[in-house]
Amino acid sequence: MLLSDALAARCGQGLFVFGVNGAQGSGKSTLAGLLAYALRVRHGLRAAVLSLDDLYLSAHARARLAARVHPLLATRGVPGTHDVALGMRLLRRLGATRLGCVRLPRFDKGQDEPCPRARWPVLSAPLDVLIFEGWCVGVPAQPEAALRVPVNRLEREQDASGVWRAYVNRRLATDYQRLFGRIDALLYLRAPSWRAILRWRMRQEAMLPATARMDRSRLAWFVRHFERLTRHAMQVLPETAQIVFTLDEQHAIGQARYRI
User: Fold this and answer.
1) How far apart are CA 225 and CA 80, in angstroms?
2) Which of 35, 168, 206, 245 is deepest in the core (most CB within 10 A)?
3) What is the distance between the alpha carbons of residues 54 and 17, in angstroms, rounded to a whole number?
4) What does the domain layout of the chain look like in residue ranges?
5) Which CATH topology does 3-258 take?
6) Residue 79, preceding bond cis, omega within 30 degrees?
7) CB neighbours of 34 closer than 8 A, spacing ≥ 6?
8) pLDDT tens-digit readout, 53-87
9) What is the DSSP annotation of 12-66?
10) How many Cβ atoms from other residues are within 10 Å of residue 180's Cβ?
């Protein structure tokens, strides 16, 4: 079964929101772009992609959050560092029945800032399909008991009291679940291991221009911010996602399971 065929069969009245979850370097952004293209060309549907990354708060907003809650929130990535209200407004406007133009936000990772609105692409609404991709899209919050033990060096040394991970989990349990509640079906790209994810992420970094590239130690520190919820997703999403693509070490799909 082709993924685009499965989605096209589900489209009917109103906006269909298709979530794509995958760890860093798993290929979720590439897959989302190809899927949107197939839906437009093969099925004649109005389809677009929204990345959770493009909802990141500005560095200034994250600095204020870091000063108020915990210093680790200055680093983009985890729940709490996105403009969830903007995401909710976008979904409402993209699903509106009347015709109109909607700008999709873009985030410049090199500058660590949202792009100026003039650079946001313009879409004609309403859409038939919105592909919403991101590393924690569709992930539920953890039980509070799971937060007690640090998962890595970052949490042991910089979040010994657990304030950061408790805040992240609380945000994930509240406004992020309202955003993810708009998803009609979820695809999970299942990585073989955390070790494979690290290797993929390092390979992804190596493809960036030298001026934008993190060195190995900086990258290792950065990905530790994502480890807890990535491991949590590896445990829960294979059971809850409607579609699961199991990847091998080389990114090839070894198994595909559909419940859609």
Assistant:
1) 12
2) 168
3) 17
4) 3-258
5) Rossmann fold (3.40.50)
6) no
7) none
8) 999 999 999 999 999 999 999 999 999 999 999 99
9) -SSPEEEEEEE-TTSSHHHHHHHHHHHHHHHH---EEEEEGGGGBPPHHHHHHHH
10) 23
CA 141 – CA 34 distance, rounded (Å): 30
pLDDT at 211: 65
Number of residues that this document lists for the chain? 260
Dist CA 29 CA 21 (whole Å): 10
The runs of H, that is alpha helices, within the chain are 3-10, 28-43, 59-68, 84-94, 153-158, 163-173, 175-180, 194-206, 216-240
- Tokens at 125, concatenated: 């609404």
Q: In which band, very low, low, confident or very high, does the pLDDT at 1 lie, cut at 50, 70 and 90?
A: low
Close Cβ partners of 91 (under 8 Å, ≥ 6 residues apart) = 15, 17, 130, 179, 182
Q: Given the DSSP bridges, would you call strands 16-22 and 185-190 parallel, antiparallel or unpaired?
A: parallel
How would residue 172 be classed by pLDDT, with cut points 50, 70 and 90? very high
Strands 122-125 and 100-103: antiparallel
Amino acid occupying residue 125: A
What b/e sequence results for 199-208 when a residue is b if at least 16 CB atoms lie within 10 Å of its CB, and e otherwise? ebbbeebeee
Exposed (0-12), middle (13-18) or buried (19+): which is 28, by Cβ within 10 Å?
A: buried
- 260 — pLDDT class (breaks 50, 70, 90): confident
